Amino acid sequence: MRVLIVEDELSLLRIISKRLKEEGYSVDTAKDGKEGLYLAETIDYDCIILDIMIPVIDGVSLLKKIRTKKIMVPVLFLTAKDSVIDRVEGLDSGADDYLVKPFSFDELSARIRALLRRQTNSKDNFLKLGDLTVDLITHEVFKGKVLVQLTSKEYAILEYLLRNKNRILTKSQIAEHVWNYDFDYSSNIVEVYIRYLRRKIDNNPRTKLIHTVRGTGYIIKEKNDHQENTFIGGNK
Q: How many CB atoms lie within 10 A of CB 25?
């Protein structure tokens, strides 16, 4: 999943970015509100972590601009402003959550997971499809009762597919949510990692989950023989 952090305290920005990357997130960063606004308008993020007291455009003003443009990405304010009035202003400006500095990274991570759960109407920290189960906290993947070992990129692609199950995703969408903005779109890396995933979790044609939509991208869904012709030319 792809996260944007807008924070002008560089040491904190580096720490949060490093820790989130270790948890498998793709992370972009901005040091001021103008740069943050540009990235938020340009890239489809899964979550934005936003400081209020940032230069050029403050966090509250930036968020109002984002919401005015109908960008409804979940936003978590991460700020030293801790009064009730500040919290109310932040939430009323369109934020989904508000965390006061200093903070525990474990709490920040849990709040991000909670925001992402809302996007999929999930009540727990598991993504499931057929006999496939993904634990969003431990990043363990089970096929039935068998633990499947995935690389961080394989896991990130699988999580993104499952969060958008039954929805066709283009190769560009997958790339944007798993790699950073400097990703080389001319490469075939998405196809390569989809092949890796299929070998590990999807090698039984009777229970295929990852389907190719030729000329478009991929969809993860339980196979329905009645709908076979939906994916013209796709690899079943």
A: 22
CATH number at residue 59: 3.40.50.2300
Angle at 144 between CA 174 and CA 214, to 5 degrees: 30
| Domain boundaries, position 7 | 2-120
| 98-115 tens-digit pLDDT | 999 989 999 999 999 989
Last residue of a domain, one of 85, 120, 155: 120
Closest CA to 189 of 178, 201, 202, 181: 178
Classify residue 150: in a domain, yes or no: yes
Of the candidates 73, 102, 120, which is a domain's last residue?
A: 120
Structural domain contains residue 236: no
* pTM (predicted TM-score): 0.73
Cβ within 8 Å of residue 160, ≥6 positions away: 1, 169, 174, 177, 178
pLDDT tens digits for range 9-31? 999 999 999 999 888 888 999 99
CB count, 10 Å around CB of 17? 18
| Amino acid found at 90 | G
